[in-house]
UniProtKB/TrEMBL annotation:
Lineage top rank: taxon: Bacteria
One family name in Pfam for this protein: HATPase_c_4
InterPro entries associated with the record: RecG_C_sf
Entries under Gene3D superfamilies matching the protein: 3.30.565.60
Name under which the protein is recorded: Uncharacterized protein
Length: 409
């Protein structure tokens, strides 16, 4: 390779990056000696049914299997691909030819415990088992009740669409060249996590995953999911997962535990802030507006981080009164507005984030002295604490009270 004016030997990292760029779709690999009789009838029937529903062509249900698979590119040149084995092959053939194509589910009543309370595994064609996986998850789904006016509502710990998307994503994107490792689903009352072998594809990181262009490690599998409407649209699974968690008041999913050899997505199961969701619904109803996923995500970042330097949609948020500015000129930052913290009945938190101007601080001191005289320090400290002011500021105010009393009384 060329480095400046010289030719140097290509290092391993550069070679690996180039190979990753040109690596063919592993799921399109041809499986020699796989016959139509090696396919699972239930899986094939479900595949045809879903294709018929997606296309609106009911005749596909009774069409020859080989023709359907050829049209879906799961067969090429009369031979079966690895994707057809994984999605439709009999369990005996999967165990023989692709034993790493296994999905394991583990339930723990507390996420910290080492031993699971329940465990089940599947090494069968995915189109014969995806509903069974969801039913296993659903069997331990917890409900969080909340009051919406006069109506009792509930939020499920495990959102069906999000869980299905997370598992589908792992099946479509795991690295099947890694033997001896399976997709593992970890569930507990606190979170739902899916761990899959193989790190993120080139150019994808936890930081850019919601913005980066779609990148398929196993394109044939991803396209089969799209053809059968197992996923709405390839490349949008993460949007679905993040938006559901935010709209249910659970906070943001994360990728803690992800490294060069593993991808792990953690989806929160417990409701953290249902009031935030109701506040946004109130804005939507009052202002007759809607929020895109990007806008919802940005508002959730504001809720979690309290202050954000430069929100992309700040003009819309300012106009609706959802956010307000802190500071001026280049140092300007943004936070959720007083309207939100009043709705949540947490004015003290608003004051701590927003801070108090110098003039307001002086006004507080003088008003207290004029109203109470010298007073008792601990009473003044208590009043400031009720305003939500940080301890350092409260101590500073009491020092100024002493100074003003001693010098101007």
């Amino acid at each position: 390779m060329r480095k400046g004016e010289s030719l140097v030997e290509m290092d391993n990292e550069t070679m690996r990056a180039i190979l990753n760029e040109i690596q063919p779709d592993f799921s399109s690999s041809i499986i020699e000696n796989l016959a139509i009789s090696d396919l699972d009838d239930r899986a094939v029937g479900d595949f045809k049914k879903r294709m018929a529903e997606k296309t609106g062509n009911r005749a596909l249900i009774n069409s020859p299997t080989a023709q359907i698979l050829q049209d879906a590119e799961l067969m090429r040149g009369g031979k079966f691909t690895l994707a057809s084995l994984l999605l439709l092959g009999k369990k005996e053939k999967i165990a023989e030819l692709l034993p790493q194509a296994e999905i394991i589910y583990e339930w723990r009543s507390t996420p910290e415990q080492i031993h699971h309370d329940f465990r089940v595994s599947w090494r069968v064609p995915y189109f014969a088992v995806y509903d069974d996986i969801w039913q296993t998850i659903q069997a331990r789904n917890l409900r969080t009740p909340y009051q919406e006016g006069f109506i009792q509502q509930e939020v499920l710990a495990f959102d069906e669409k999000s869980c299905r998307e997370a598992v589908n994503n792992a099946v479509a994107h795991r690295d099947y060249s890694i033997s001896g490792r399976s997709i593992i689903i970890y569930a507990s009352p606190q979170f739902f996590a899916v761990v899959s072998p193989g790190g993120f594809p080139q150019h994808i990181t936890p930081e850019n995953i919601l913005k980066a262009a779609p990148h398929w490690r196993n394109r044939l599998i991803a396209e089969a999911f799209e053809r059968t409407k197992l996923v709405e649209r390839s490349g949008q699974g993460m949007d679905v997962i993040f938006e559901a968690a935010i709209r249910q008041g659970k906070g943001l999913p994360d990728f803690k535990g992800t490294d060069a050899h593993t991808v792990r997505i953690n989806i929160p199961a417990k409701v953290k802030d249902a009031e935030f969701v109701r506040f946004l619904e109130k804005i939507v109803n009052e202002k007759q507006v809607s929020f895109s996923f990007d806008e919802i995500y940005e508002l959730e970042m504001l809720r979690e981080q309290k202050v954000v330097a430069n929100p992309q949609h700040k003009e819309k948020f300012l106009k609706l009164g959802i956010v307000e500015k802190i500071g001026k000129t280049s140092g300007t930052k943004y936070m959720l507005s007083h309207k939100y913290y009043s709705y949540e009945e947490k004015p003290g938190i608003y004051t701590r984030i927003k801070g108090i101007s110098r003039e307001k601080k002086k006004e507080l001191i003088l008003n207290h002295i004029q109203r109470e005289g010298q007073g008792i320090k601990k009473d003044f400290m208590l009043q400031l604490q009720q305003l939500g002011l940080p301890l350092g500021f409260r101590s500073h105010v009491v020092w100024w009270e002493d100074y003003l009393i001693n010098n101007f009384h």
